[in-house]
Specification:
The protein is mostly helical. It has a domain of 50 residues. Helix content is 92%, strand content 0%. It is built from 4 helices and no strands. The longest helix is centred in the last third of the chain and has 35 residues.
Length: 106
């Protein structure tokens, strides 16, 4: 069954015309994502099986967050302000487009 999927993938690659560089890049990206997912799964299962490890990680994260709380708050504030500016800019752009559409007779 897996062999059939491999043939279908090869036909798709041949049909779309990926060159060797793109193919190798995509294969490497897929392998890295797969390895990362497997590593994350292993780490999470280890953490859930050892509650003291979970407590230690929580304490370390809490210490780091407390130590750098001013930087974290300023970063969040900056991102929030940039997000608000972006939304207002997009709203203005949309209003301009709607006004142009109303002016242009069809």
């Amino acid at each position: 069954m897996a062999h059939n999927h491999t043939k279908q993938a090869a036909k798709h690659i041949a049909h779309t015309g990926l060159d060797k560089h793109e193919l190798s890049t995509n294969l490497i990206k897929g392998a890295v994502m797969s390895a990362g997912a497997q590593t994350g799964k292993t780490i999470m299962s280890t953490i859930t099986k050892h509650p003291l490890l979970l407590l230690g990680i929580g304490a370390a994260i809490g210490y780091y967050a407390h130590k750098h709380r001013k930087d974290i708050v300023s970063s969040v504030s900056s991102v929030t302000d940039k997000g608000k500016d972006f939304v207002l800019q997009q709203k203005e752009n949309l209003e301009d487009i709607v006004a142009e559409a109303k002016e242009t007779p069809e």
